[in-house]
Design goal:
The chain has 421 residues and is mainly alpha-helical. It contains 14 helices and no strands. Helix 3 packs antiparallel against helix 10, helix 3 packs parallel to helix 11 and helix 4 packs antiparallel against helix 5. The longest helix has 60 residues. It is globular, with a radius of gyration of 21 Å. It starts with a helix and ends with a helix.
Length: 421
Amino acid sequence: MNKAVHFLNLDGRTNQKKNVTWNIVANILAAGQTFAFLLLVTRVLGADSAGIFSFAFAVAALQSIPSYGISDYQATDVREKYKLHHYFWLRLFLCAAITACSLLYLCLGDYAPEKTAVVLLIVFMRAVDSVDNVFNTMFLQKGRLECGAKLTAVRIALSYICFLAAILITENLVQTCCFLAITYLLIFLAGIRLIFPVLKGRKWGLNRDILSLAGECAPLFFSSFSLIYITNLPKYSIDYCLTEELQGHFAILFLPVNIINLMSAFVLRPILTKLSFTWEKEDYQGFYKIILKYCLMLFLVILIFIILGRFPGLTLLSLFYGIDLNRYWQEFLILLFAGGINAIVQFLTAVITTMRYAKQLLFFYASGAVFGTLLAVGMAKGYGMLGIAVQFMAVQLMLLLCFAIFVYVIIRKAERKRPKA
């Protein structure tokens, strides 16, 4: 126990170098998780099982809703208007509600028992992940990102080992996912035990402040729901219109998009508190410069991914997964571009959250969800995989335009309101 506490450095001082280093390690492991899991499922169990597994992750992505919106709100709550237990109970209630809704969705969809079981197990795993994120965000809020990143890195590293062992021993997707879900729960409980010295003495009772927090975060919750829905709408369309095999193919093509988003997230998290403090100090020029610098960096990442995408990117994916994906080169390049735009959109979402304009986010995301839904089925039936890729890109470009204009207008308005020196 003492060695574990020493490893986490719970009693140490803030070390920016360690914060950045461990955040990079945790995000690299997170970025590779879907890639590695899908590779193992495809190689050991085949493309159809990969399609089921990919669909399970698409449904389970709804558990990320609290992490996307409420986590950013918690991290930027530098004055601690709400305490840790408020965020914990709200996250727990939301995850339970999302799990119940996922079960209802599966029952109404009349899915096969195997597919239903896999989806529910992955949903549970992501629920544990989401609740655990509350404590990681607590460390981020205190400037101790290192501690949360170490816990995340250990959890994901162990999940690699457990998943590999389970799928090779059982050669059964349901049993493998069951083993993975149990592993996640045990690691979460062990993590809570390790950070108990930090949690000891805090209040954990329910009170009305949780309802107040829920009210403030409601626009963020529904905005995040729309964001996750938009991101996974291509997979829902394939599930409705196409085949499990094509679902598996799309999941492989979509992997670099997830990597782009995870890479952008690991750069974003350390600057969230800086963004918040800059906005609170009314340093609007500094705030604008941070936004511009981050967006330019993301554009550079998009360019690199697109250049490497056609070759060797697609060739390597085909080689790794044992499936000829070269016929999808147009879809792949469109998805890479759209994925980069999606990363910028998520960054601007965090910016607007920091500025405390969450209600406006809901309008934009709801509009994007409606627009995407109107396009989705028709594009999937009429143009197949290419239509799905174009639909995803169109929604991302729409959101980027709306968010960029909105952020620019709000900053300019705030500058005009600020008293002149």
